[in-house]
Amino acid sequence: MAWRVEELEPGGSKAIVELAGVIDSTNLEDFFAFINSVFKQGINRIVLDMEYTSYLSSGGFSVIIDAYRRAEKEGGKLVIARVSDLVKDLFDVVQFERIIEFYSDIDEAVAAV
């Protein structure tokens, strides 16, 4: 588990949030707290970079949906970038692309938020 926030503007509202490893029941509470800490920093324009995320449980999906809704409620936006093939298959099963925008290129994702 390695999660990191890269602010794109010092003190700004836009950031790349890098997620890596497995997100499941063993670390779901930590993931939820991490995402909340991003919002507490005043960041609401978020690119979730999931290039190195190897698994995402249903609880992880719920945290991402909640973050997406919170970003919108706060006048921001959340998009997902560089999803690994395995995790993309999971997103496809639950039809996330109907809700959240996906990008294969990090620069395009950043431009979208």
Average predicted local confidence, pLDDT: 92
Give the fraction of residues assigned to helices.
Answer: 25-40%
CATH superfamily: STAS domain
Please give the count of helices. 4
Give a quick account of the main beta sheet: strands, pairing sense, barrel closure: 5 strands, mixed
CATH hierarchy, class: Alpha Beta
What pattern of helices and strands is seen along the backbone? EEHEHEHEH
pLDDT under 50 segments (min length 5)?
none
- Percent strand equals 25-35%
The gyration radius over C-alpha positions equals: 13 Å
Q: Give the terminus-to-terminus CA distance.
A: 25 Å
Which structural class best describes the helix and strand composition?
alpha/beta
The count of DSSP E runs of length 2 or more, i.e. the number of strands, is: 5
Q: CATH architecture, please?
A: 2-Layer Sandwich
CATH fold type: Transcription Regulator spoIIAA
Oligomer classification = single chain
Number of individual domains = 1
